[in-house]
Amino acid sequence: MSARILLTGVTGQVGSELAQTLASLGEVLAPTRDALDLTSVSSIRETIRNVQPRWIVNPAAYTAVDKAESEPELAYAINAEAVRTIGEEARAIGAGVIHFSTDYVFGGEGIKPYVETDPTGPVSVYGTSKLAGEEALFGSGAGHLIFRTSWVYGATGKNFLRTILKAAQERDRLCIVADQHGAPTWSRDLARMTAHVIEQIERHTSSDNLRDALSRFSGIYHASGAGETTWFGFASEAVRMLHERKPDAKLAELDAIATAEYPTPAKRPVNSRLNCEKLARTFGWKMMDWRDSLREVMAEL
Fold it and tell me: What is the pTM of this model?
C-alpha cells in the first residue's frame, strides 16, 4: 500500500517510533508544533485540508497528569477539542483516524483487567479530558480506532524507566510505589501494532473507499504490555538488569511504599490492568510481555 499519513506528536515517545514504523506504508507527514498547533482549531483544519491524508494518526496528547489539575483548559484543548476537530475533518474527507487513549479513563478500582465495555469513571482531570476526547471522536462520525494503553516507556524521551535508571546510579535509596498494578508498554510495540492494524484494514478495502472498511473495525481497543507488575516491580527488574550490565556499579536500594506515602496532585489508578483480547481477536496482534520489551529497551540504552 501507499497512503498519505498525517502524524501528530512526532517528538513524543510514541510519535517518534510511529514516524519510522509508518514510513513503510506510504508518505508520512509529521508537522512539528510550530506547523500544527493542537490548541488551535483553525491550525488543525488548515493542516488536514492541505494534506488530504488517507489516515490521521494522533498520539499527541497533554500528558502532564499532575499539572493538568491546575491547567484543565489546556488539557481539554489538546486531549478533547483537538480530537473533535480531527474527527470532523477526517469525516469530511473520508480519512481514517487512529487515536491513543489511556487506562486513566477508568476509575482504577478492583483487580480484574478492564475490557473495552467496562464503565468508565476517571478520577483526574487528565483522565476526564482523555475520555472526553474518545467521546468527541466517536461523535464526529469519522471512521476511527482508539487504542487505550498504559505505562508507556522507551529508550528515548522522558519516562519512568529512564528516570529510575538515572536515579539508581546517583542515589543510595529509592522509594517506589508498590500498590498500583498494571503493565509497562513499549512505545515501539505500540507503533508496530499500529502499522499492522492499518495494513490489516487496508487488505479489507476493495476500493479507494476506506470508510466502508473502517465501518467494520471502528471502535475502542486495549493495547498495553502483556503480563502485570507494579511500579516497584518494574523498577526492581530494570535495576536488576542494569546491575547485570554494570556489576561493579553501586546502585540504589529500592524500598516498596504505598500510594498514600507518595501523595500527588492527581489521584492515580490502583488498577491499570487492560485486557487486550479484543485486539488479538480482531487483528491477530498480541502485545509484548513487559519483561521481554524491557529486555530489548535495556539493550538500546
Answer: 0.97
